[in-house]
């Protein structure tokens, strides 16, 4: 990996669509759950890589890095972003969380990356992002959408150049057949028009009034190691908010019953995974959905 990329010499030109809400809804959900769990100061390291070369090829051209750095330079939530998120997050969301989001910048992030335009290969980190867990989580989807499509197009162009050789000129005339000016937004908009019910694309939700939906990521689950990581254990009863229930005790009770029913050992379950589920349920008591395949896809 090369040294930290200095963004001071970047052009001020940037795509106005690339903003913090150009992300998946579950990133916002996880940020709130991290905040609720007092994990905002946890230091995290995310690596961006891919598993297979496109087009069944032997290489990939890394592209999109400059757009990622421009995005970080301008990372902040606007007043309209705040108003939109206040409408979409549960009414139980604490006002302090919105103050936390409003004050977020990328100043505490460090980015290490391979030089843009380099030939790269599967499972090799193209970028490493270090910093506070919620902030790194909030930029993940945006980085992926900026790098994946750019690298796909750059790789395809390189394959054309290899096939054509150095003595033939190649011209790109793809605009009229492109997937909209910004493919991710277009896909979200027209999938909804075609009959889908919701999108994970938060900016599409804001711009086109499309319902947003999502769960949480494997990163959220793996951020918990044990039940002792839980700083909040209790949840208010849905039918009587004056009564609080220890959700950890209730979850352990039901886990024992399920283990007996399925004839499996309690040791086969993962306490860190359970802690993640409990914390997310406490953050979203009326809209909880669990991602259950972090440690065992089949079971």
List the helices and strands and how they pair.
Blueprint: H1 25-36, E1 43-48, E2 60-61, H2 65-73, H3 79-88, H4 95-102, E3 110-113, E4 119-120, E5 127-132, H5 133-164, H6 183-193, H7 202-208, H8 218-222, E6 234-237, E7 240-246, H9 247-262, H10 271-283
Antiparallel strand pairs: 1-5, 2-4, 3-5, 6-7
Tell me about this structure:
The protein is globular and about 75 Å long. With 299 residues, the chain is an alpha+beta fold. The strands form three sheets. The chain has a three-stranded antiparallel β-sheet with strand order 1-5-3, covered by helices on one side. It has ten helices and seven strands. Residues 1-9 have low confidence and may be disordered.
Principal-axes geometry comes out as globular
Continuous helix count: 10
The number of distinct β-strands equals 7
Label the structural class: alpha+beta
Distance between the termini: 37 Å
> What radius of gyration results from the CA coordinates?
22 Å
A few lines on this structure:
41% of the residues lie in helices and 10% in strands.
Write out key terms for the chains shown.
3-stranded antiparallel β-sheet, 10% strand, disordered N terminus, 299 residues, alpha+beta, 7 strands, globular, 10 helices
């Amino acid at each position: 990996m090369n040294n930290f990329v200095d963004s001071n010499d970047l052009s001020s030109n940037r795509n106005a669509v690339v903003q913090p809400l150009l992300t998946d809804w579950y990133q916002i959900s996880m940020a709130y759950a991290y905040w609720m769990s007092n994990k905002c100061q946890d230091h995290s390291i995310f690596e961006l890589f891919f598993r297979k070369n496109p087009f069944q090829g032997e290489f990939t051209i890394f592209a999109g890095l400059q757009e990622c750095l421009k995005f970080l330079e301008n990372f902040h939530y606007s007043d309209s972003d705040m108003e939109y998120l206040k409408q979409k997050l549960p009414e139980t969301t604490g006002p302090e969380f919105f103050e936390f989001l409003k004050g977020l910048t990328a100043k505490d992030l460090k980015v290490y990356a391979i030089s843009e335009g380099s030939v790269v290969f599967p499972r090799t980190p193209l970028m490493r992002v270090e910093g506070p867990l919620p902030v790194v989580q909030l930029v993940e989807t945006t980085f992926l959408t900026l790098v994946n499509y750019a690298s796909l197009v750059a790789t395809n162009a390189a394959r054309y150049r290899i096939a054509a050789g150095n003595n033939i000129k190649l011209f790109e005339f793809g605009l009229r057949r492109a997937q909209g000016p910004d493919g991710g937004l277009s896909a979200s908009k027209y999938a909804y028009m075609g009959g889908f019910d919701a999108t994970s694309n938060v900016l599409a939700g804001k711009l086109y009034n499309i319902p947003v939906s999502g769960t949480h990521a494997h990163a959220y689950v793996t951020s918990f190691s044990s039940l002792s990581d839980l700083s909040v254990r209790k949840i208010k009863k849905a039918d009587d908010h004056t009564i609080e229930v220890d959700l950890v005790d209730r979850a352990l009770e039901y886990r024992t019953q399920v283990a007996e029913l399925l004839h499996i050992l309690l040791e086969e379950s993962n306490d860190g995974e359970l802690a993640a589920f409990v914390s997310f349920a406490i953050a979203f008591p009326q809209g909880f959905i669990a991602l259950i395949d972090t440690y065992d896809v089949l079971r």
